[in-house]
Amino acid sequence: MHLHLRPPFTILKLVLLTLHLQLQPILTLSPCKTSCGTIPINYPFALEDGCGSPQFRHMFNCTTTELFFQTPSGSYKVQTIDYNKQTMTLYDPSMSTCSILQPHHDFIMTDIQSAIIPPSQDTVFVLLNCSIDSPILNHYKYLCFNFEGHTCDELYGGCNAFRVFHLLTNSSPPCCFTSYNTVKFMSMNILDCTHYTSVFNSDKLKGVGPLDWVYGIKLSFSLPDVGCESCKQSGGTCGFDTDTEGLLCLCSSFTNSTRECAGGSMISEGLNNAPWTKPLLVLLLVVLLHNMMGLL
């Protein structure tokens, strides 16, 4: 009598293989760039249209190694972005500093930019070589404030670039320490000042000479509360529809969702990667019971 052995557990092996594959980490490439040179690009900012928050759409440009913030008055190199403090610092190559005098230049932002990513409270704009007829020395003199005890004489005497103003008039021409709102609503021509500079971290500059000031512009921003966190937790990247500007959760270069990526995290390991894990476990249990019954 020949003993007929049952075929190997072919179905069982197939299920086990499928389950094994389901449990493997699913690695997907983010559809949005995450850096430009050494600057990390995180929400709400982005380089590609459709990534990040639509409020910051078309505001950034990346060369091979440098990130630039684009405004109507030009492109400004981004030096740092601090996502915890929600600040971004800019360098304006056309702005005068203590060591170099640049031609007349205005810093102009769009209305949306000045609303959602304005210069920070500790950024001070310094208007230099102003006429005695300047509106900020007359009707709008209240726009000028005391900047940590610093004076015009200190600027004109301590900075090589600004010393020329003192030499031309044999005196110290008026200057004004003010906020961004002043240069936002009045151009340099209206202000009747020939040059300006700006410094940030102004609250740390008491007793510090102008040679050691941090020149540049610090911007402050906030994160739009649009439910992006659930998208990130599911492994997606927050973006938006380029036509409607409605929120999208970008799951891969070819898959989008309105809220989160299906099946949990697409970049983490374990059971979260397997949207069909529970049904497979049930099927596995059924197959095991079937084969056990067949052996009895």
TrEMBL record:
Wall-associated receptor kinase C-terminal domain sequence ranges: 216-252
Organism annotation: Pisum sativum (Garden pea)
One GO cellular component, as annotated: membrane
Subcellular location as annotated: Membrane
This protein's UniProt keywords: Glycoprotein, Signal
Record field: catalytic activity: L-threonyl-[protein] + ATP = O-phospho-L-threonyl-[protein] + ADP + H(+); L-seryl-[protein] + ATP = O-phospho-L-seryl-[protein] + ADP + H(+)
Primary location recorded for the protein, binned into one broad class: membrane
Entry annotated with the keyword Nucleotide-binding: no
High-level lineage: Eukaryota, Viridiplantae, Streptophyta, Embryophyta, Tracheophyta
GO molecular function, one term: polysaccharide binding
Domain of life: Eukaryota
Residue stretches making up the Wall-associated receptor kinase galacturonan-binding domain: 32-92
Topological type in the membrane: Single-pass membrane protein
Name of protein: non-specific serine/threonine protein kinase
Signal peptide: 1-28
EC number in record: 2.7.11.1
Classification via InterPro entries: WAK_assoc_C, WAK_GUB
Presence of keyword Signal: yes
Alphabetized Pfam families for the sequence: GUB_WAK_bind, WAK_assoc
